[in-house]
Amino acid sequence: MVLLSGGLDSSTCLAVARDEGRETYALSVDYGQRHRGELARARRIARALDAHDHRVVKVDLSAFGGSALTDPGIAVPKGRSARRMAQDIPVTYVPARNTVMLGLALAYAETAGAEEIFVGVNAIDYSGYPDCRPEFLRAFEKVARLATKAGVSGSPLRIRAPLLRLSKAQIVKLGTRLGVPYRMTMSCYDPVGGRACGRCDACLLRRKGFAEAGVPDPTLYVGRSQE
Length: 227
Description:
This protein is mainly alpha-helical. Helix content is about 35%, strand content about 10%. It has eight helices and five strands; from the N terminus they run βαβαβααβααβαα.
């Protein structure tokens, strides 16, 4: 079971699972995000990377607000330094998002007979989200053991985060080796007309990753031709 957002990290995760010989089931979540266009990207990536099945589940977290990703009245931060990104929890944090998504993946994994849930969280090049930390993943794996039929029957699901300790550049190199179609992916928090803004935290980390990996960035950014 792979949580697939349509972005760089989750797409690389899907490729890693495939490379390990897994039969992959992909799950995307329409949670009311302003960058909902990523879901179309996820569909294309699931097909390109041979996911056995891909489902999109709708859970409207915009009903609660509190995030620039779900509330159009909150501006997405632009032009921040990597140091500034790591200093606090940004307004792009969506309350309980990863908890909800992992819960949905857990349900789908049980019904599909999956043994593992792959998630593309990263503890190095990340924007200060508390639900991307190793401690959170360990705690959720314990919840999965306690709260599921599979867990209490002696077949607990594992939470896999193969990108957890990798820099963005290392992720780009890994995905390039595994044939991830990065041109199809979308990381931007605030895209315009199908193009990435190039200045939000996600875009800046993505651009930095490609540059440090020495891999041409195929992303179409606002106001620029393909790099």
